[in-house]
Write a structure and sequence with these properties.
With 274 residues, the chain is of the alpha/beta class. The protein has two domains: 146 residues, 3-Layer(aba) Sandwich (Rossmann fold); 109 residues, Rossmann fold, CATH 3.40.50.1860. Helix content is 45%, strand content 16%. The chain is built from eleven helices and ten strands. It has a six-stranded parallel sheet, sandwiched between helices. The protein has a four-stranded parallel sheet with strand order 6-5-7-8, with helices on both faces. α1 crosses α10 and α4 packs across α10. The protein is globular.
């Protein structure tokens, strides 16, 4: 019988962006078993309405809870910005998001903070509020970047057009002489070589995934939910295109995962054996 400690942590994103959170889980919490859901049928989230995001998150977390996870990590900044508080009030399970951990880390690193994010996350001002709440003396600039996620999901990291778009998005932040850049989307660390080539070497880069997993580790310890046994292999489930997800994951994780597809129409009716 699986004890509460041995249950999986559920994490979700619209696509492969959440793999940056998964890598941090592997690094910081190597004993934990993971259930990863990629909502590839509905990506990108960053251009969806608040109402759509709330519906997606409600469906996915409902499914994760039904599948028996012990904790949920929103490996998606758009979901964290728009749906975290509502989800926490509905589901009786620890649910953690990226915004506050990322904001707290940013104010420890700099005073002139730039945030690159999806249009929905930028429009929500979630990072601006969280950063100023952590330190009211800093300055914050946000840029919505609608093309980044599609380009990353289409594996166009080395396309000259991607460099051109990155240059366009970063120009206003360079003009403001930022000293810290926050990845306001879990996809964006994949762009780091391009971003570093465009920004001054003195700029600090903040990946909220690192700090989200640190918070998760403390929460597991506080609730006596750490797993000390050998973890089960990570289970990957997507809402569309499992082969494409597996191909992209090979580059990000160093191995090709077995990926199961589940119909969105059946998401709320089904749970899976984890």
């Amino acid at each position: 019988m699986t004890t509460d400690r041995q249950k999986r942590i559920g994490i979700f994103d619209s696509g492969i962006g959440g793999l940056t959170v998964l890598r941090e889980l592997y690094r910081q919490l190597p004993n934990e078993s993971i259930l990863y859901f990629g909502d590839t049928a509905r990506l990108p989230y960053g251009t969806k309405t608040t109402e759509e995001i709330l519906q997606f998150v409600d469906e996915i977390i409902g499914w994760l809870v039904k599948s028996g996870v012990k904790m949920v990590l929103m490996a998606c900044n758009t979901s964290s910005a728009l749906a975290l508080e509502k989800a926490k009030s509905k589901f009786d399970i620890p649910i953690l998001g990226l915004i506050v951990p990322g904001a707290n880390a940013a104010v420890e690193q700099g005073k002139r903070i730039g945030v690159i994010a999806t249009p929905a996350t930028a429009a929500s001002n979630a990072y601006r509020y969280a950063i100023l709440d952590a330190d009211a003396s800093v300055q914050v600039w946000q840029v919505g970047c609608p093309y980044f996620v599609p380009l990353i999901e289409q594996n166009q990291l080395h396309d000259p057009y991607t460099y051109q778009i990155a240059e366009e998005y970063l120009t206003p932040l360079i003009q403001q002489q930022i000293d810290t850049l926050v990845y306001g989307c879990t996809h964006y660390p994949y762009l780091e070589p391009i971003l570093r080539s465009l920004l001054p070497k003195s700029v600090n880069f903040i990946d909220p995934a690192v700090y989200l997993v640190k918070v998760a580790a403390k929460k597991l310890e506080t609730m006596n939910l750490q797993n000390f046994n050998t973890p089960k292999p990570t289970k990957f489930v997507v809402s569309a295109s499992p082969q494409k997800f597996a191909d992209l994951s090979l580059q990000r994780l160093g191995y090709r995962p077995v990926v199961e597809a589940i119909s969105l129409a059946n998401l709320l009716e089904q749970s899976i054996s984890i």
